Structure formats: structure tokens, C-alpha cells
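seq as requested:
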Amino acid sequence: MMKVTQIPFKDTGFFSTTMLDYLEQKETIQSFYNNFPNNLGFHNQIEEKENAHSLQSRLVLVGALKKQYANVEVSDKTQENIELLKLKNTFTITTGHQLNLFTGPLYFLYKIICAINLAEELSQKYTDKNFVPVYWMATEDHDFDEINYFNFEGKKVQWNRTDGGAVGRFSTEGLDAVLDVFATQLGSSKNATYLKELFSKGYLEHNNLADATRYIANELFKEYGLLIIDGDDAALKQLFIPFIKDELENQTSYKQVSKTINSLKENYKIQVNPREINLFYLSKNSRERIVFENGIYKVNNTSITFSKSEILKAVEENSLDFSPNVIMRPLYQEVVLPNICYLGGGGEIAYWFELKAYFEKVKIPFPILLLRNSIQVVSQKQQKKLRNLGISHEELFLKQHKLLSKKVLENTAIKINFKEKIKFLESQFSELKEVAKKTDISFVNAVNAQERKQVKGLESLQKRLIIAEKRRQKDLVERITELQNELLPNQSLEERQRNFSEYYLAFGDDFIQALKESLKPLDLASFNLVLITSILDDVL
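C-alpha cells:
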């Protein structure tokens, strides 16, 4: 069974001003995105992309997907979606993610399920169109330290190997040892057996990380027709050649993104900064930046160099060697896919805001940007504890010291409202300040100093009272601390800390079904708190 409670994003304290302003469509951010994810926005986006995406691009994409899925057990729904991509009225809903070991943090699932649910919702609304969910694997990424582990029940399950090159090309050698460690933690239940088999078949029966990740994601979501795309593909790179050449010759991305950043940073934090050339050169075991110095193109940290004519020829002959970085990867995706919406986390969406002018310059439609849903899973047992401790769902997300202070003051017999005392004190000093204005500046300064001193004194007394009450209410403090740490590991959203296997072990397929039912991608106002109850609830 499941119950969903919705909490405004702003009430959690975990979402940036950038995201909150975007969700509210504040004027300060409107120039950095194209269509907003509402009825009018989707209507306009569909029309824009339909007119801009060629049949030839669609056929190349379908051919690449068939090749990538050649050795994969493809569901009827997935096969149907691949074929639908040939049609002018078919569009993709895309999310992307790194190739984290065994899917990594929980939000990997949230991203994909949001894409699936949005595709289904739009298909019901626009009955003359088709919408296909896509997971774009970040196979050309190189941040191995970010993906070589996952957390299970508070312990790090890690793959130790040497780093180098594009992660999708990494051999899966050594992951048998990781499975041995992980298996000992799982037990022998039916769900544990499934997780062991999923890991084993994914990593021990596939030669590289890209194929392994595709297998796992396909096993989890194939019934929903999810398409999993590897951008490290010769046919797809062919479509991107004109943009690679433009980048090498004109540094268009650097010029356009730099202008945008200058404007964006007036109100918002910048996520990524462009380089003069936003391309990497891939070889067997390396992924290095391309730089332009003294009329020569150089591959950083190597002896490889090109003249202008040589590098343009290399792009034509070996486009697979050229890889877009974080600035250009979104463009590559939108060139390849008939995409209308990119669905991602707050940090991702924030850096997409830097790219709109670049897209406009190279005449590629800028997709709708949609913040993925976030979820906090709460078991029946945990919900009972929250209720007994008098902690609301909103209070759960307070910083721990604020939560503890609030609760010990609510529970103390000493009823002193320091806020009221400070407010009264300030009102008294306001009268004195009016009198002081009629004298000289030295007296004004003396009054202000005295006010600060007395307000500070009251604040100090409040802090001392809280410290004393925390000592006196030690049991309450420990219970609250334990419960919040359990729900928010490392004082962070659990979606960034836990792996899906923890919940799958307890709930099996019901967990994914519960997520599918509770994630509402177009509900732009709320963080979802999902209360799950089951006969296995005591596991959590």
C-alpha cells in the first residue's frame, strides 16, 4: 500500500533559488529557457521540433538503436518505440545519467520513471502523436570516481580499478569481486536472489560498462518501452560532424555561453564554465581536451597535434574520436533525437540555462526543461515515529540543529518566547532612537550599540536555554537525531545517498510500481513524500 504526501519544493530547503524561480517562472530567468512545461509550451515545442528534425536523422537513429540492441532481449513495447522513431509525429522525452555502478543513487530511477510517465501522459493528451521515453547514457564521461560505487545500508560498495578514458568503454573485469562483497550483504530472500542475478548478468556477462548498464536499465524498465542510447556511436557522431567542425573553427559554444553567463550570473549561480574548445579527443585509454595554440590544434597531455585541415579531415574520417564535453553534450543529444523535453535534476537544469543562446546560434530547437520529481520514502514504522515525536513532514527537512532546538523548546516547561522579547526590546529602542536623532551622532551610535548588545544578550540566553534543555531532554534528542539520520542520511536527501536495492530487497517489484504511481512529472510545485506500507515494513 502507498500514500503520497506533497510538500512544496521551497519548504524542503534542498532546492536552489534558480530552480524555485524557474518553477515560478520569475521574470529574471525567463530569457534563459524556451518553452515552459505547460500545455502551451508542449504544443509549441512539438511544432518547432517537428519542422526542424529530418527524416534522415530519424533513420540514422533507428539504425543505430537496432545495432545497439542487437544482443539485448527487447520487449515488444521497446521494439515498437524504436520503429515509431521513423515517423514524423514521434518525439522523445529524454533524461540522462552517468553509468553509476548498479544504478548508483535512487534518483537514477526517479529520472527514468519521470520520463516514462511524461511520455505516457503526453501520448494520452496528443493522441495523434507518439512520445517515447529515452535514457541517454553518459558513456563518454570520464568521472570514474563519481560512478565507481553505490551505498547499501550505509556501507559503500566500491569497484576499485585504474581510471582512464571514456567510462562506457571500461572493461567490466573485476566486478565479480564486487558482487562477492555485495552478495554477502543481501541475504538469501527471493528479492535478494533477483538482485544478485541482475548484478551478475549485467556486469559479468557483458564486456564493457555501457552494455552492462543498458542490460540493467532494460531489465528494470523494458516493459515500459524505455529506449537506452549510447552516444559513443559512429553513426550518431556522423550527424554531429557539422557542429564539431563549427566548434573547432569558430568556438561558437564558448562565445555564446560566455555571453549568457555574464547575464545569468547577475542573479544566479553558474554551474559550468565553457572552454574555448568544448571537445575531447578519445583514444583507447584516454579522454583529453582539445586546445588551440599558435594556429595548431593540440590534444592536451599528449604529443598529438593537428593543423586546421588535418583536424577537419580527422573529424570526417574518425568522428568517433571527438567527444562533446558538458557544454556540447546537450547539443549532441538534441541533434540526434527528435526530442521535445529534457528531464533532469536541479544542477543539470541550471547548466542548461547557460546554453539557450548557443542553441539559437546553431539553429537547433532548445528543448523544454523539466525538473524531475524528488521523493522521500517513509515506511509505516517511520511514519509512526514521526507522529509520536510530533515532527511534521515539513519539519523533517529542517537542519538538524534547528529541528532539535525547535522540538526541545516545544517540550520544555520553561515558556519564554524569545522572539517576542526581542521584538519588544526593539520597539523600546525605536522610541529611544527617535529621541537620539535630535541630539548628536555619538549618542545615536551609543543607542544603536546598546540595542545590539541587549538583543545579543537575549539571543545568547536563548542558546544557553536550548543547550540546557537538550541535555535535560537527552532521550528526545537522541530519538529525533536517530530518526532524521535514518530518513536523511548524511543530512542529505536520501535520493542522493541510497541505492534502489535497499528498497527492492524489502518490497521487490512493488517498489518500482509504487514509484511509477507516485511520480507526477508535471506536478511542478511539490516534493513527494511516499509512505509505503507492506508486510515487510519492519525491514525498514
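The CA atoms of residues 237 and 319 lie 6 Å apart.
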